[in-house]
Structures are given as structure tokens and as C-alpha cells.
């Protein structure tokens, strides 16, 4: 038994989630760290999936009548349980998704933060009071629980995306059915076990408020097509969203799509290059370039290009690559062989288009023959080709050059995705143009920080092929509730709106 297998088993035992592992299971879960098989699971059948959705629906019928501050108490308890198991959960993220340990712990912290946010929110699900045009009338809007929320998640944030959805859904009065990525089901089972601990401390919660569905995209499709699922929140590739969005729309369901990004950083002549190098390196190389918000394009002014690229290459050359569980490692593995192949073919295409490639080679294959560690790549391009416009989920940073800021903004926006963006500049005119209506078209636009590492307080998501959904902070909770407009007549007359007469 390798160290990864042993540690995974210990963590699952500790959390009470080891029973799900079954020798006869057809779904094999591997660690990106060494390729070892961490365990096997039995996917849910069509009938079981149907029962799970039915149970979630019954849970919602009860939960919607529990006052929202009381619902918030359950989320507060969940936050406490997550705090108690932060170390174990963070390690499990490293083991199953390959993130460096500090990012694994950061992901758990993000879950704790969203629980805190949702607890406060449970007392702030405000509606408006609106002036009525009719005398003796009052008009207001109220927000009600929506129903079952189906949550489909990607491998790269195997816990946090569930928590963003679930903490909000629970205070909103909804129940949750979660289909995690087939690459990271163990982290989901661990979260479920921690959730059960919170439920055990909460006196009056209905059973089945949160359930995990194990399986591949076929199980996900059943969730997508089921009209008992009022909101389908799906995080993953644009390819997935293209299938899921129209299917949910066909049954007039609600969908919240969080899809791919192709995020750029603009560096202007006035930029603080020390800051820019650190911000770009973290955003381009962190999580081995496997964040939806990873920086994939650098659009740099010709006057600072040479200096910046030289400094980035130097920073890249000194990066500690290796086992993500070891303190000091900054770059862990890619998730699997397909991901490695995707990276190599993107580099070949970029080269064929005239790109100059630095890095990108496989390393550590003697120590880890079944895992895929790479040097991060910098590719200098003389134009934005289709390869650059495509999201390759790996640490590749394409470098493009500009002369006028308008040109930089146009390049930044000239991709199908619209998730995250940033500018490094000390010129207020430049930064304000970037943030203006004719600036970045992304859901996230930052100044003097990188494109990744968002806080939970803001609404998270992007437009165009990123799907248009918003999760997490701000007023993202509204997606998890239904709105009713109420008009109340307390007069003895029945005036009709717009002066219409209809006397009978
Ligand atoms: P993926 O699209 O391969 O899979 C994501 C999930 O969708 C998995 O659970 C998968 O089983 C499910 N799925 C796939 N096809 C489906 C279908 N037809 N019906 C129902 N479910 C289906 O993505 P991945 O490789 O796990 O993750 C990487 C991608 O996710 C990248 O494109 C990344 O940018 C994106 N992502 C986006 C965000 C965001 O918030 N915008 C966050 C994380 C990841």
C-alpha cells in the first residue's frame, strides 16, 4: 500500500466515510500524486438516483417551513465541523485532486468562510417594498425556498464549489443532491460525513437534506433531466455546459452555469513589476494551472515585455515541483494522463503557429511513472491564435504584446470565455478604462492582483462561454430562491392598475 493509499484510508476512517469503498466497485479513484488506486466505488443506478431525488424533494417540503435563521444554525454547525476537520479534509484534497497542501487547506477555509457568510445571510433574505400606484394598496416582494438543488462539480475544486452552493441552498430552504466529479468522489463522501455530524447536533432537520450521487456524466444527466430538480448548478467545462444548459432549459428548469475561463493579465508600462511577477506566477502556476481562473494569457506592453518575461522565466526555473503533500512544494501534478496529453498537444499547436516555447516538459517520471508532473510553460506568440483562444487546463502562459491600451483590452476580450481578468498598472486612467463599460468583459476584473484566488464575499462567475452564473457572495443567494410579488388591497375599493375600467 503506497503512502497516498494509506493516508487516504486513514482520513476516510477518521471521518467515518470508509464504508463506501468496495472491492467490487467499478469506479476506480486514483491519486494524481502517484497514480495509485485510492479505492473503488459502486456508482448509483438509475433507480437509486431516482430515489435519491425523491428523498431530496421530501426533505425540501419539510425544510422550507423551518425559519431561515434556524436553517442558518445548521450551517453554523457545519462550519464548526469543517473547522474541526480542516487538516484532514485539506490533505484529502491534495491526495485526490493533487493540490499543494496549502491550497488544500485554503479550499477548506473557503468552505468555512462561506458557512459564516451564509449564517449571516440567513437573517438577511430581504425583499423590497414597492410603491403601489393604487390607493389603499401595498406591494412587496418575498423570497421563498425553491426546491431541490442539483449540484454538479468539477475535479479542481472538489469541495469548495459544493459548499458555495450548499451553504446558500440550505439557508434558502432548499435541499441538495450533489454529483461530484468522477475523479474526486472521495472528497465528496468526506464532506457528506462531516455534514452528517452537523445534522446529528441539530434537533429538527429532515433526513436527506444533502445527498451525494456517485457516478459519471450519465448519473449527472439524470439529475439534469429530472423536473423535481428546480435549480441545476453545474461547474465544469464549456463542453459540459453546452450539453447541460439546453437540456435544463427544455424542461424550463433553472440552471446556474460556472464554466471554463481563458483569463488574461494586462501589464502596462507603469506597472510595479515585482508585484506583477508574483501575481502572475501564482495565478498561472498555482494549482498546476488547473483553476478556472488561472492566468492563461499575458498581454504586456512592448516596453516592459523583455524585462517581465525574463523575470517570469527566472521565477519559473526555481519553482519546487513535486509531491504536493510536502511542505515547500509549489507545483504539484496534473490530474491525469489526458490532462498531460492535452497540454502537450496545445504546446505543439502553438509551436506550429510560430510560438516560442519555454518549459512544458514532463519531469519526475522516474519517481512517479504513473503520475504527470510538468514544468510550467511560457509561450511567446506574435498573435492570438485559436490555440490561445482555447482553454487548455494546464500551466501554459501565452505571452502577447501590445502598443495601445485599447489594443490590449480588445485582445483580452477577444476570446469566447469571460471569467477573470486583471491589470497591473499604477496609472489611474489605465485602470479605470480597464474597469469601465468598454473595458474588460469578464465577471471578475482585478487591479494589481492576479486573476485567481477570489474571496467568497463577492459574486463569482463570468459571462459568454463561462455560462453567466454567479455563485457565493453578494446577492448570489437569489438564484436559490423563488421571488413572489405580492399586492395587498386594504381599501374598500377595487381600482385596477393602469386605470382600466371593468365594472360588473
Ligand atoms: P468536466 O466538464 O469534464 O466535468 C465537470 C462535471 O460535469 C463532472 O462532474 C462530470 O461528471 C459532469 N458532466 C460532464 N458531462 C456531463 C453531462 N453531459 N451531463 C451532466 N454532467 C456532466 O470538467 P472538469 O475537467 O472536471 O473540470 C475542469 C473544467 O471546469 C474547466 O473547464 C474549468 O475552467 C471548469 N471550472 C469552472 C469553474 C467556474 O466556477 N467557472 C470552477 C471550476 C472548474
TrEMBL record:
InterPro entries recorded: Ald_DH/histidinol_DH, Ald_DH_C, Ald_DH_CS_GLU, Ald_DH_N, Aldehyde_DH_dom, ALDH7A1-like
Cited SUPFAM superfamilies: ALDH-like
Keyword terms, alphabetized: NAD, Oxidoreductase
EC number: 1.2.1.3
Catalytic residues (UniProt): 258
Gene Ontology MF: a single term: aldehyde dehydrogenase (NAD+) activity
Location of the Aldehyde dehydrogenase domain: 24-483
Family according to the record: Belongs to the aldehyde dehydrogenase family.
PANTHER family, A to Z: ALPHA-AMINOADIPIC SEMIALDEHYDE DEHYDROGENASE
This protein's name: aldehyde dehydrogenase (NAD(+))
Organism: Lampropedia puyangensis
